[in-house]
UniProtKB/TrEMBL annotation:
Residue ranges occupied by any Response regulatory domain in the UniProt entry: 3-118
Keywords for the protein's UniProt record, in alphabetical order: DNA-binding, Phosphoprotein, Transcription, Transcription regulation
SUPFAM superfamilies associated with the record: C-terminal effector domain of the bipartite response regulators (SSF46894), CheY-like (SSF52172)
Name this protein carries in UniProt: Response regulator
Signal peptide residue numbers: none
One Pfam family cited in the UniProt record for this chain: GerE
Gene3D superfamilies reported for this sequence: 3.40.50.2300
Residue stretches making up the HTH luxR-type domain: 146-211
4-aspartylphosphate: residues bearing it: 54
Length: 218
């Protein structure tokens, strides 16, 4: 079972998510919170697998709540927002969130994303995430990081990182590079370990921040 904590300051929104997720045999909604501070406390007490996190909330916003939960290692965080170019959502990604979805995402896509995050993957493929990263990371939205951090990677690993940043799945990367999917998974694991990254989302962010990938590439 995937244990989920719902966090949104709108009770009606939480009710909608609860109805969608409650219909899934492999999902158990273990708790709800109406602000980020309650979310942090409940995540610590309930230890859910995934926190479905709103970003704009009273008392403590979803960005800071995500940061605290990620630093504590209590759960993975999937950020939900109403806006398709939301700087708050980007900040949440930078602070440890494993994905980003719009609140009007179709129920099937929401459930798929939840399962992906729970299994240790990250939601980086939706076009809205690419636009978000392109706007705030690659188009004057922030200072570039020193690309020297990438020197730890082999040429093949850099190649795989570029394709991750472009939103390709392991299967698509394997097909493009004529590798087995198992080999690609190995490369991804080494990239994350060498760069001390939590997941694919952080790998995408780093690829943009170091200038390895530019908005036009996406």
């Amino acid at each position: 079972m995937i244990r989920v904590l719902l966090v949104d300051d709108q009770e009606l929104m939480r009710m909608g998510f609860r109805m969608v997720l409650g219909a899934q045999e492999d999902v158990d909604v273990v708790g709800e919170a109406g602000n980020g501070l309650d979310a942090v406390h409940l995540a610590e007490r309930l230890r859910p697998d995934v926190v479905l996190m709103d970003v704009r909330m009273p008392v403590l916003d979803g960005v800071e709540a995500t940061k605290r939960i990620a630093e504590a290692g209590t759960a993975k965080v999937l950020v939900m927002t109403t806006f398709d170019l939301d700087e708050y959502a980007l900040s949440a990604l930078r602070n440890g969130a494993s994905g980003f979805l719009l609140k009007d995402t179709p129920p099937g896509d929401l459930v798929s994303a939840l399962r992906a995050v729970a299994s240790g993957d990250a939601v980086v493929s939706p076009s809205v995430t690419k636009r978000l990263l392109s706007r705030f990371l690659g188009d004057g939205g922030g200072e570039l990081r020193d690309a020297a951090v990438l020197e730890a990677l082999t040429e093949r690993e850099r190649e795989v990182l570029v394709l991750i940043a472009k939103g390709l799945s392991n299967t698509e990367i394997a097909r493009k590079l004529f590798l087995s999917e198992a080999t690609v998974k190995t490369h991804v694991g080494r990239i994350l370990a060498k760069l001390e990254l939590r997941d694919r989302v952080q790998a995408v962010v780093l690829a943009y921040e170091t200038g390895l990938v530019r908005p036009g590439d996406v």
